[in-house]
Amino acid sequence: PRVHELKTKAAAQVKSTKDKEHPPPPPNNVVEPPSSDRKDGVVYQVGKLLGKGGFAICYEGKAAGASKRVALKIVKSKMPTKMEQKFQTELQIHSKMRHQNIVQFHRAFTFENCTYLVLELCPNGSLMDMVKRRKGLTEAEVRFYTVQIAGAIKYMHAKGIIHRDLKMGNIFLDKYMNAKIGDFGLAALLLTGKDMQVMRRTTLCGTPNYIAPEILEKGKKGHDHMVDIWSLGIIVFAMLTSKPPFQSSTTDEIYRRARDRDYEWPSPETSSKYISQEAKDLVATMLQDADKRPDPDTIVAHPFFTSGYMPLASDINYKLREVAPE
Ligand code: ADP
Description:
Layout: H1 2-21, E1 29-32, E2 42-52, E3 57-63, E4 69-76, H2 81-94, E5 105-111, E6 114-120, H3 127-134, H4 139-158, E7 161-162, E8 171-173, E9 179-181, E10 188-189, H5 194-203, H6 213-216, H7 227-241, H8 251-259, H9 277-286, H10 296-300, H11 313-321
Antiparallel strand pairs: 1-2, 2-3, 3-4, 4-6, 5-6, 7-10, 8-9
Helix pairs in contact: 4-7, 7-9
Bound molecules: adenosine-5'-diphosphate (ADP).
């Protein structure tokens, strides 16, 4: 009971510090001040709460007179320095992205001591929510999402951006159930040499399950962007099995297992899930050492994508909407 008590206390403390970082709920109408491209400003009607992140809070919104709904991501204008930095990078990088599988950044403005990001609305939650609810996706669905995410990674890398925090909880689903990468909090321009150490420090704030082993090692360089391919490997494994491959109770153990590539597919005897050899092989190629990992074009040319049904967007929309929350 003592241990339990301590844990609950610690959890409560974490929660209370977290809540302090979140801005208060916005008023029903939020006013975007006039700017060079919108001389009269805009009023947004605020709708339902979409979710809370580390320091952001997200609501549905609609500009007065417009028909399209958007997501309003709100953060306090005064944040602790480290978060301020994270947020500035996020803003700068996200606002330059334009791709069908990246949450579209519309605008940013300040209102009542908060910064508002106006983003493309993804009303169907995250890939993580769906995979948990469904306890893993079919291989056809995994083909669909892997192609979409690989496309977004190809785009980011071509622009010299490494995401560094790709995970199912950062991939949101639009109204047609397309995947959209939605959080650029740890993204960075491709770095070399000294900056690499800074990157290593900051990247360790990421989620241990998705972290590539070379980030933990010093002195390796030149394949920085391949960390995103590693994360995609973890995502593909997790979409198929509903668990990340190196899941453990401690972070050190997760890192150890990742370094040793110590993971197992569910056994056909104890699991109802059939996972093809092609799928397993694809994951293995993405979890190799950085210099051997495939680039996005090589990934989508893998036999996994031609070894079975590849759904059209309309099939996915139809099938998955039945299990998605309204
Ligand atoms: P943080 O950067 O603080 O981690 P997130 O970007 O994860 O914040 O956003 C917090 C939550 O808001 C998400 O978990 C999700 O539920 C919701 N959210 C974020 N962006 C969108 C969006 N474009 N559409 C719908 N919901 C979103």
